[in-house]
């Protein structure tokens, strides 16, 4: 590979909204055999809306929403932001809670006025009843989030986040180039399956922790695959770093961009196929 050709291609990529940090990524992209896509914020628009609020009694609704806004107030996660917007739209004003702990791929926990508040998926929640309540929401193809106070489920939320309009075409373009696609998400199976079906991804791994996503990359690599990862979140960072080529959504978190070799500036996942095509052209010319 001549440095001049690589530089020219890097410039060409930049003009198309593909910011390449690491020159070897330009060379590897054309050889990718499989691409793992995160769901939330990557395949989906990342502008989730609370479509159902289910108070479960035992606590005043306005108190539930105030705690929700306080604990998720500093959240970088799309779901956290959607929950805060929902509380605010109902007139809730709350100061941000201190000492909130984010558990990537699961949710957030905090201690507020001596009460333990946990917001997130069934894995994180400390009420054994949570699983059934959240499963019912997921059956409708929506992402469930529960909220526990002192170990008791006080509310559940159903959240919808539609697929990006261009996602089916972006995935179809990759398949046409002979690249396999897999969706890996921390979300639950039925909600994830609805999105995967919409965009044409057959292989799905749901309930994946950030470490699981990274292990998928390693496992496929060990099988001789050349593995790309596309993601936007903190939860994708380890997988983005482990992949042969990591693609970060430019509108996502900074840590995802730090860990990825390539940033899709506008967050347009159709650029992944463009990158592969550009790499293949560049490497053919060079040889
Ligand atoms: P994805 O892999 O689709 O991007 P994540 O791994 O970020 O999803 O999150 C997985 C699950 O963890 C979410 O579906 C949600 O149930 C829960 N979760 C993560 N962060 C939060 C948060 N800040 N508030 C509530 N739930 C959260
Ligand atoms: Mg994501």
Automatic annotation (TrEMBL):
Could you tell me the keywords of this UniProt record?
A: ATP-binding, Cell membrane, Hydrolase, Ion transport, Magnesium, Membrane, Metal-binding, Nucleotide-binding, Phosphoprotein, Translocase, Transmembrane, Transmembrane helix, Transport
Q: Which GO terms describe its biological process?
A: copper ion homeostasis
Cell inner membrane among keywords: no
Return the GO cellular component terms, semicolon-separated: plasma membrane
Q: What is this protein called?
A: ATPase, P-type, heavy metal translocating
* Organism whose genome encodes this protein: Magnetospirillum gryphiswaldense (strain DSM 6361 / JCM 21280 / NBRC 15271 / MSR-1)
Q: Give the UniProt family note.
A: Belongs to the cation transport ATPase (P-type) (TC 3.A.3) family. Type IB subfamily.
- State which stretch of the full-length protein is shown: 467 to 753 of 803
Q: Give the main location.
A: membrane
Query: Where does the record say this protein resides?
Result: Cell membrane
Show the GO MF annotations.
ATP binding; ATP hydrolysis activity; copper ion binding; P-type divalent copper transporter activity
Specify the domain of life of the species encoding this protein: Bacteria
């Amino acid at each position: 590979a001549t440095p001049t050709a690589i530089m020219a291609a890097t410039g060409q990529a930049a003009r198309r909204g593909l910011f390449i940090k690491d020159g070897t990524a330009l060379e590897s992209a054309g050889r990718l055999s499989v691409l793992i896509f995160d769901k939330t914020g990557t395949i989906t628009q990342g502008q989730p809306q609370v479509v159902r609020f289910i108070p479960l009694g035992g606590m005043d609704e306005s108190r539930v929403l105030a705690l929700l806004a306080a604990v998720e107030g500093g959240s970088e996660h799309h779901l956290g932001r959607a929950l805060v917007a929902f509380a605010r739209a109902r007139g809730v004003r709350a100061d941000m809670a201190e000492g909130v702990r984010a558990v990537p791929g699961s949710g957030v926990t905090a201690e507020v006025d001596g009460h333990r508040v946990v917001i997130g998926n069934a894995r994180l929640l400390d009420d054994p009843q949570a699983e059934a309540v959240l499963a019912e929401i997921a059956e409708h193809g929506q992402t469930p989030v529960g909220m526990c106070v002192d170990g008791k489920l006080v509310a559940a939320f159903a959240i919808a986040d539609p697929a990006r309009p261009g996602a089916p075409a972006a995935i179809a373009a990759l398949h046409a180039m002979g690249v396999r696609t897999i969706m890996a998400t921390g979300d639950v199976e039925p909600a994830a399956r609805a999105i995967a079906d919409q965009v044409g991804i057959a292989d799905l791994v749901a309930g994946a922790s950030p470490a699981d996503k990274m292990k998928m990359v390693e496992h496929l690599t060990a099988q001789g695959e050349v593995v790309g990862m596309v993601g936007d979140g903190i939860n994708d960072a380890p997988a983005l770093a482990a992949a042969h080529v990591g693609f970060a959504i430019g509108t996502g978190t900074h840590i995802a961009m730090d860990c990825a070799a390539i940033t899709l500036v506008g967050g347009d996942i159709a650029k992944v196929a463009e990158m592969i095509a550009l790499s293949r052209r560049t490497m053919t010319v060079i040889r």
